[in-house]
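ASSEMBLY PREDICTION REQUEST
Request ID: AP-0331
Submitted by: J.K., bench scientist
Number of chains: two
Total residues: 911
Priority: normal
Notes: Please return the full assembly, not individual chains.
Input sequences:
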Amino acid sequence: VKEWSEFAVVNHSVPRGDGIAKVTGSAIYTSDMVVEHMAWAKVLRSPFARARILSIDISAAKNQPGVVDVLTGDMLKGLHPYYGHGVKDHPLIAIGQVRFVGEPVAAVIAEDELTAQEAVGKIAVEYEELTPILDVDTALAPGTPRIHETDFADGAFRGFDDFPGASGNICQAVHVEWGNVDAAFAAAAHIAEGEFYFPMVYAYAMEPYVAIANYEAKGHLTVHSSAQHPFMVRHDLAQVFGLPLNSVRVIVPYIGGGYGSKSYTKIEPLVAACSWKSGRPVKLQLSVEEAFLTTRGDDARVRIRTAVDANGQLVARQATIHLNTGAYAENSPMVCRKAANRIVGPYRIPNVKIDCFAVYTNTVPASSYRGLGGAQVTFPGESQIDELAEMAGCDSVEFRLKNLAQCRESIHPGMRPIDADVPGDVLEAARMLRMDRPLAPGHGRAVCCSASDAGAHPVTLAMVQVYADGSVSVLSGSTEIGQGSHTILTQIAAEEMGVPLEKVRLVGSDTAVTLFERSTGASRTTTLMGRAVLESCREAIAQCKVMAADVLKVSTDQLVQVRGGIRCGDIRMTWPQILEKYFQMEGCSIIGRAYLRKAGDLTLVPVFWEIGVVGVEIALDEETGSITLDSLVTIGDVGLAIHPAMTEGQDLGAATMGLGAGLFEELIYDGQQLMNGTMLEYRVPRFSDIAGNIEMKLVQNRDGVGPYGAKGGGEGAVNPVSPCIANALRQATGVRIRRLPLTPERVWKALQEKKTQGLL
Amino acid sequence: LNGKLANLEIEPRETLAEVLRGRCRLTGVKLSCEAQVCGSCTVLVDNLPVSACTFLAYEVRGKRVITIEGLADGEGRLHPLQQAFLDHFAFQCGFCTPGMILAAKALLDEKPEVTDAEIVAHMNGNLCRCTGYLPILKAIRQAASELRRQK
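STATUS: Completed
Returned structure:
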């Protein structure tokens, strides 16, 4: 175990590996790429939420000069056109029917984008409209037809990640239960009960979905994509085209934001099918308006009640969660699982019963959104903790401290005990926010917290290549999505190999070159890929020791490892010297590798608990109902920050995303039509929304299973922001709002209602 | 264009972003909202920031256009804004960064003694989904002070 003082590279805010490229405009994203002989695709989208496709006339489009080919759902013979890692319910293009407004119905492949777009307008589709099923209650009502008429095959990760299936319009159901909630509620001193709603949100990754696919006749498929999880995309593509894994190559350059929205497979099967059909490499660049129609976050209706005993101890929580999952499962089965787990919070609650349902509707498919169900359920959960504190006549911070699980205490039977100091984190946030100061009129303060079972399924494989000139390459299947993985992974390698950071290069992500990494999400990269890189380095060093022993004609236990090499008595040898002496040739390299799986200290789920702790002070303009942030504090309980500045950057970024859903963001449907699917009408946080005072703190107790005791970050701080604002609003005004976002109109109306009631 | 004379044949309908990204391969010009909301396509035309996504290319005839690729000096030394963005980790995915830096340059060229409130007001048309803006504010502050020092 390394002492703090021993870290030369790790735990230092070194320059970003992708920094120069990103400030000079030379960083290449998929949207910037062109390949030889490339054609462009454009997509015709459904104007109906639920309809049968009676006919598609492509003749006029096909005859337009410059058009290479047209693809529709009846031209997929020879392919397995349904994909999905949870449920294989998603056709790569509509087959026979459409299930949401915006679903791809046909694709035109042309010599240039404009021609493709023009030709799209010449395709005539005849539909038979069916009554759309637009909300959860309708979808679940007896007699409502099924959105998917058949049961689909399980995808690769159903079962493997413990998804019990469901049927009808329930895409997924998850039940969590321990203790006896009925008895506990019957005996409780106070019960808070209510219905909450977390809105439909859009992640707005600034680079819209884009992919370039080249299907070569001999059955080799190469895809460049803005995908977060290249290996999951590879899996789906291999299934769709019936190709072996070594014949599907997915390459991910820099990604212009994701926040979950680029996890798993999106447009890649469609683009690959366009290439397969036309015999040309094909690029499909979606616009932001089309990205709005591709993936969104699950909106959630949560009916929840929570109880305390006379001593102010939490005794029970029961919740029924309905997620509006949209037309296809995407990653919502996992959102469903996580929402069910995460609604418990970091508290010790002896009696729990959670029923969570992901429900199909004829709306844009919902999938991962930063925090995977965490934000949706922390809003009701933490709102209700404040409600109970108020009922019990207890300060809300005191109330939390009394009920929060201590480090190593269990919150979910059978799962990993809490590997963080949540009470300490909450206390620190309250101190940073200076909760004891008197409040100005219209101001309110709150601290909220969350615990997310993070890390996803721990299968992470990595390699490092140590070269005979002392340089090192890290081969990682994690994607650089802005979180800084390409920097922190090189830091870990530099630290372990004892070489300067400038000598370490990151290679990835390219499924033909890098080993399997399940995903880049669930805040896992530092913990799992970081650890795999660390173990790869140590394995390479072990090989170097054997080589050095051979060269020096000694046994390996006579060698002492020193920074950048070994010592044997008075002889010192660096890694390059060892390699050169051993191979008797310049220019060689060796590979160290590590295969992490669900074993050893990675057996227990989750890989780690990601703790979110945020405090805010809000200022309310009672005339307009407008809320601004006076102060924001975040605590990152990350075990050890490989790169402190970027770790804090993750907390602030996540909290700002939480602010969006808390105050502004909501996708609005009018009937079957999404009304605000453009950036003119969808309001995300801007420069002027940042808090006047921002303070961030990292807690580094080295209590994680990652490298040097590190744990992940980047999603936790999303979750507590919206309940913080709602609780602070309650403190400022006495008004409790259970529906987000807290727009001026919603707040103003609630204030008027309270005033009216006061007059009565 | 970035300090050099550029002769280009363009279609009247082409936007500046299409010409810069497509014909000139200056892909540091990033396209996102394509509706003048996000600022990611910001370039400088005669030192004023414009949204290249909705600016017709023919309007730059005879004018000076600067993209992110033209910001470092001839010897490859970074502009103080570029350095400050590095120093403050004022980007993550980097997609908004070229537009952010160019919008900030227009401000600092115009107003070397800039207040935080002026930075916020000027930069409100540039969206960033990763950072939460504070690191960008700090970077612009640092660059302003560095530029004043250089003068």
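REVIEWER COMMENTS: Chain B is about 35% helix and 5% strand.
SIGN-OFF: pending second reviewer
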